[in-house]
Amino acid sequence: MINTPVKQRLRSNRQLSPGLQFLIFTCIFIGIFIVFNIIGFAIASAVYGTDTINQIRLLNLSAPHVVRALWLMQLVGTTLSVFVAPVFYAYVIANEPVAYLKPRFSFSWQMMLLIFVIMFVSNPLIEFLSNLNQQIPLPKWLSWMKENEESDRKVMDAFLHMKNVWDVIVDVLAIGLLTAIVEEFMFRGVMLTIFTRWTKSTHAAVWITAIMFSAFHMEFFGFLPRLLLGAFMGYFVAWSGSIWTGVWAHFVNNATIVVVTYLYQIKVIKTDPDNQHVFNGWQYVVALVITLALMILYHRWALKKAPEPDYDGEELD
Predict the structure, then answer these.
(1) At a CB cut-off of 8 Å and minimum separation 6, what does 131 contact?
(2) What's the rounded mean pLDDT across residues 276-281?
């Protein structure tokens, strides 16, 4: 039996054009997503019964077991499928798990602290874009999205209804950590690598991936703020070469929402997390200046860390 050298095998994989890679990955994700949603639906039906499934269809979230069934369907149908697709592609199809998933810890812990600060300092910018997004009229051909967003909002409110600290921990792990890991593996892992090789530009790859990340959530009135968040995560990963910087930023954003929502529910804070009029004009400007300065600082710190070579000596973007 003749063994093909590793470098030769990897070069043969790279003969696939990035466009074809994107098409293959999209087909794989859609297939896995459909299969896992069917499995999630089947498990939920078997565990909680058809009556619970009917209540889900009616969006009767107060009915017994409905929220638990929704959690099960969410974790199996969406979370697990978004994780399996990029991992399967990176290991089986591309055969370049390091290049496509970027699992290395090639960053300093000071950079993680800086990411934490950026995610909080940029909050006024997120609010500004959210308010701007609300002023954009919804095209008629996307009118279905309004009802979809309202349904998703009701489900998320049910997920975020926390009675005690244990509920907070569960939501932080499920909504904060798990969601951060699987979505970063997909968007700032596989997708960012494909588009970086396709466009030959880090900036183009980051923003294209951010657009796809925001569109994936199917929320028209949340598109712009999520676009900016996606761009932040994209630059964190692209400049550091590690997926964990994006996971950390994603986790900080999601976990903060969970914790602030709980503190509001138990009346520790008075500011409604859904209030999009907390900041004013000059605070938007100050946040923009500080965020840009911190992003430049992050980039400089990332450049001090020598990029680790890919399998055949090619540096990761």
Answers:
(1) 276, 277
(2) 90
Burial of 3 (0-12, 13-18, 19+ CB in 10 A): exposed
Length of the chain: 317
CA angle 97, 102, 105 (to 5 degrees): 125
* SS3 assignment, position 307: coil
Domain boundaries, the chain: 1-97, 102-306
CA dihedral of residues 294, 282, 222, 232 (deg, nearest 10)? -10
- Phi, psi (5° rounding) for residue 95? 60, 35
Q: What is the pLDDT of residue 310?
A: 46
315: left (phi over 0), alpha (psi -120 to 50) or beta: beta
Report d(CA 154, CA 301) in Å as an integer: 42
Residue 285, strand partner residues: none
Task: State pLDDT tens for residues 204-236.
Answer: 999 999 999 999 998 999 999 999 999 999 999
Cβ neighbours of residue 83 closer than 8 Å, sequence gap 6 or more:
181, 182, 185, 186
Q: Which residues of 106-140 are buried (b: 16+ CB within 10 A; e: fewer)?
A: bbeeebbebbeebbebbbbbbbbbbeebeeeeeee
Q: DSSP labels for 226-280?
A: HHHHHHHHHHHHHHHS-HHHHHHHHHHHHHHHHHHHHHHHTTS--S-TT-S-SS-
d(CA 215, CA 257): 20
For residue 215 the two structure tokens come to 């569109």
d(CA 270, CA 272): 6
Q: Which two tokens stand for residue 107?
A: 């960053």
CA 7 to chain centre: 32
- Would you state the pLDDT for residue 304? 82
Q: Distance (Å, rounded) from C-alpha 224 to C-alpha 222? A: 6
